[in-house]
Amino acid sequence: MAKCLSSICAVSHAVQGDFLQGVIAMPARRALEKEKIDCLEKLSGYSEKEIMQMHGFGKNTMEKLKLYMKENNVSFKNN
Fold first, then answer.
1. Number of domains observed in the structure of the chain
2. Which of 2, 32, 60, 72 is the least buried, fewest Cβ under 10 Å from its Cβ?
3. What is the dihedral of CA 26, 32, 33, 37, to 10 degrees?
4. What are the Cα distances from residue 66, in Å, to 1, 6, 13, 23, 27?
5. Record's superkingdom (predicted)?
6. Which residues fall within 8 angstroms of residue 17, CB to CB, at 6 or more apart?
7. How far apart are CA 30 and CA 17, in angstroms?
8. Closest Cα partner for 66 from 56, 53, 51, 79?
9. CATH code at 26?
C-alpha cells in the first residue's frame, strides 16, 4: 500500500560532492549545497552571520568550519 520512502529520501537529499565531508555534519552540508556553495572560495563570499542562519549550523558546526577554513587560509567576509 505505502511506497518505501528510503529510496526517495536517498535520492532527493543526497549531497553530490564531497565538499566538507568529514568536517561538518550532513544537514549543514546539504544547506550549503542548496545555496550552491561547493568550495571554500564561494564560502568566503558569505559572512559568518549569513552561514549561521542556515539550517544545520550551530556553534559547534561553525567552530569546526572556521578551524577548517583557517587551516586552508580562508575566512568569511566581514559584515
1. 1
2. 2
3. -140
4. 47, 33, 25, 10, 17
5. Bacteria
6. 33, 38
7. 10
8. 51
9. 1.10.150.20
Q: Which domain holds residue 41?
A: 22-79
Closest by CA position to 20, among listed 77, 51, 12: 51
Q: What pTM, to 2 d.p., does this model score? A: 0.75
Domain assignment present for 66: yes
Nearest Cα to Cα of residue 66 among 47, 79, 53, 55: 47
Mapped onto helix, strand or coil, the DSSP state of residue 60 is helix
Cell numbers describing residue 29: 552540508
Question: Percentage of the chain with pLDDT > 90?
Answer: 75
